[in-house]
Amino acid sequence: MIEFLEWVLLTLGVVTATLVLAERYGSEIAIALFASLTVLANIIAFKIIYAGSIAGFLLIGPAGVIVYASTFLITDLLSELYGKEYAKRAVVAGLLANIVAVISIYIAITWTPAPFMSPESLNAFNKVLGFAPRLVVASIIAYAISQTHDVYAFHLWKKLAKGRYLWLRNNASTMASQAIDTVIFISIAFYGVVDTSTLLSMIAGQYILKIVIAALDTPFIYVATYTWKILTSERLPEH
Predict the structure, then answer these.
(1) Which own/partner pairs from 142-145 qualify as long-range (CB within 8 Å, at least 24 positions apart)?
(2) What is the pLDDT of residues 187-239, one digit of tens each?
(3) For the segment 85-138, what is each residue's pLDDT rounded down to a tens digit?
(4) Which positions ≥6 away from 179 have C-beta within 8 Å?
(5) What are the structural domain ranges in the chain?
(6) pLDDT tens, 42-67?
(7) How is residue 164 annotated by DSSP?
(8) What's the CA angle centered on 227, arms 69 and 8, to 5 degrees?
């Protein structure tokens, strides 16, 4: 678990620093970063990581779990500083980026390789970047529903709290959205492949990891929000 926490803090720190730097160039940079992370999360998801166990649940998940969970920090930040429409743009950009990535990877895999390419290298390439149609469908459906829910839930909590308690809307929207994402993806991808007990264990174990990441990203959204507001105020013209 210590190793997992270290990677979470490092990833969130890098993402937050990038978002702060991106403030100088506008929301487009944050949206581009969001789309890039969603694609990256799917590419590195081939490796399954182990982070320990809690209450009998094995904390396992795809290596992209931290990267993907970081995207919720970005949409929450866009929602907080730019509004709902900008966060929705990020979700659409991420969806389109993943569709393009899937098509591009499929073309690369089916394309005739050069005659000097070794079978070992070709098999490794196809094995890592290859994908099952069922997993792709599960990923896209889970992504579209959970990310859209996160945007609307964030603003609902903001309205209910009258603009106060950033930590509340950040955690409430992200944790609920991550639950939706986990249940939909694992159910569609593995229902009928594993028994019900294993399916529920996979959902619980992966969701625990996502809850930990969601809780840890709270101070980072405060740092990013505070820094963005300072940088913005410094550029305002004096009256």
Answers:
(1) 142/180, 142/181, 142/182, 142/184, 142/185, 142/188, 143/38, 143/94, 143/95, 143/98, 143/181, 144/91, 144/95, 145/180, 145/181, 145/184
(2) 998 888 888 888 888 898 889 999 999 999 999 999 988 888 787 765 544 43
(3) 999 999 999 999 999 998 998 899 999 999 999 999 999 888 888 876 788 888
(4) 207
(5) 2-228
(6) 888 888 888 888 877 778 888 889 99
(7) -
(8) 25
Q: Which long-range contacts (CB under 8 A, 24 or more apart) does 223-226 make?
A: 223/16, 223/20, 224/16, 224/19, 224/20, 224/77, 225/77, 225/80, 225/81, 225/166
Instruction: Supply the pLDDT for residue 235.
Output: 53
What is the separation of C-alpha 47 from the centre of its chain, rounded to a whole number of angstroms? 16
> How many helices (H) and strands (E) in the chain?
9, 2
- Among 69, 59, 93, residue whose Cα is nearest residue 15: 69
Tokens 């990877």 correspond to: 105
Secondary structure of residue 113 in the 3-state scheme: coil
Angstrom distances, CA of residue 239 to CA of 113, 235, 236: 64, 12, 9
The pTM score is: 0.88
Please give the pLDDT value at position 89.
Answer: 95
Q: Quick check: 7 and 66 in contact, CB under 8 A?
A: yes
Q: 61 has which bridge partners? A: 49
Angle of the 166-190 helix axis to the 65-81 helix axis, nearest 10 = 140
